Amino acid sequence: MRITTTVSRLEQAQNLDRPAAWVRALVRRLPQGAVRDTLHGVPLGHPVHPVLVQVPIGAWFSASMLDLVPRTGPASTVLIAVGVGAAVPAAAAGLVDWAETHEQQQRVGLVHAACNTMAVGLYSASLVARLRKRPLRGRLLALAGLAAVGTGGLLGGHLAYRQATGVNHAELVPHMVGDGSRWHSVGLLSALPDGKPARRFLDETPLVVVRSGSEAHVLADRCSHLSGPLSEGEVADGCVTCPWHGSVFSLADGEVVHGPATAPQPVFETRVLGGELQVRLPGAG
Q1: pLDDT tens-digit profile of 69-82?
Q2: Under a CB-based contact definition with an 8 Å cutoff, are residues 95 and 27 in contact?
């Protein structure tokens, strides 16, 4: 519990806000497009950062294990070099995700990144020491790097499992709207503004409804990225943009057009009976 309490205090460490703002501004210079979406993990359907970090962590841990085995020095050196190289794309993906989070998540994430940066520096120094035929120094630096990356991993777990960074915040919707075969009324179609997002409710589940003449598109209102209200966003070119972090979703099928979101929005089937707009979510329940 002491570890949990200490880590939780980072969420309220406002002194981290200034350096976080500086790093965030630097990261956001990367323009929207295919590169940013790939780093977010949009083509994969979930964040790519957790996948990429497996390579450096695995390589570095294996190097420390081989350091305990006689005459395996060259193999350890190769593994450390691989880890240092693989850390670059892993860090890029993590920074892009981190820049589009809440301030409490950014505070913890900044320390997480600092620990991992320290680990890269220690492993780079270990690599140099090994290449200069200083094996003992190289092993000690590697162990220090392993401790740093382990601390970073602890903070990464807090980000994912306590602060819900990178998870699908719309996943609960199909379990909250009842029987997916039943139609539910969400009001008169004529009461909806044409071409603009509006919020309606199915029991306690908020929906974003966009009317287009005699038809309407209906998606779950809470953005899958961090629960931003899509009904307060903008509609253009058949898409709705989240007002919080700029995720763009197709109104037709809920698919992610641009990140940081990686999971699609639940899309409701619609029909109009007697002027009432009715919706249902197939597979819900």
Answers
A1: 888 879 999 999 99
A2: yes
